[in-house]
Amino acid sequence: MSVRHALLALLSEGPKYGLQLRQEFESRTGEVWPLNVGQVYTTLQRLERDGLVESDAGGDADEGPQKGFRITAAGSVELATWLRTPPDLAAPPRDELVIKVLVAMHLPGVDVRDVVQVHRRYIVQLMQQWTRLKEDADEHDLGFLLAVDAELFRLDSVIRWLDAVDGRVARAASDPPPATAPQTPAPTLPRRRIGVKR
User: Which of 37, 49, 101, 137 has the smallest set of CB atoms within 10 Å of its CB?
Assistant: First the structure.
């Protein structure tokens, strides 16, 4: 989550104080990701250092909560670039659950399908909690509803992956791979005849 760019987005609406930025960040994101005020001021210091925001006093961001900040022209360019640049999704994230299952598959005495079911039950409980929050939410609280939708979709994909793991492990147990045969050289493919018939 880019707090840095979220703060730039809030400042693009006009000058704001640090505490105000924290409150608006939490309100806009459905209060799903609480933000420490210390993180707000640390981020503002870095943005000011990089010339992306400027403050009323033009000095240190530690002066207090009443110090106002505004976005600079360079900050506006940075924000516009961020909004239109897809996040890096090319490399798979280092997922603890995936690593746990892959490691467990090679541990003697560990029932991988049992590990899968333990995590599956936990994630189903999480989905039920999020669903209850969604049902109780104000239907006009669009930020919160979108954040809950994202979390439910993410957890649903984890459930589907665990189901796939369970199925593959069960099939592998009932149909183990054949013993390794002595390697033979790969057949040489005939060369394609090149030429034009006359």
Answer: 49
Task: Locate 161 and state its tokens.
Answer: 């992956």
What whole-number distance in Å separates Cα of residue 179 and Cα of residue 181? 6
190 exposed, middle or buried (CB, 10 Å; 0-12, 13-18, 19+)?
exposed
Residue pair 18/61 in contact by the 8 Å Cβ criterion: yes
Cα atoms in the 13 Å half-sphere on the side-chain side of 105: 12
Residues 46-87 pLDDT 10s? 999 999 999 986 445 455 557 899 999 999 999 999 999 988
Cα separation of 169 and 167, whole Å? Answer: 6
Decide: 5 and 20 in contact? Cβ < 8 Å: no
CA distance 101 to 95: 10
Q: What is the pLDDT of residues 10-23, one digit of tens each?
A: 999 999 999 999 99
Residue whose C-alpha is closest to residue 4's, from 38, 36, 39: 39
Contact call for residues 28 and 147 (beta carbons, < 8 A)? no
Task: List Cα–Cα distances, 138 to 33, 58, 135, in angstroms.
Answer: 18, 41, 8
Nearest Cα neighbor of 28 from 45, 48, 5 is 5
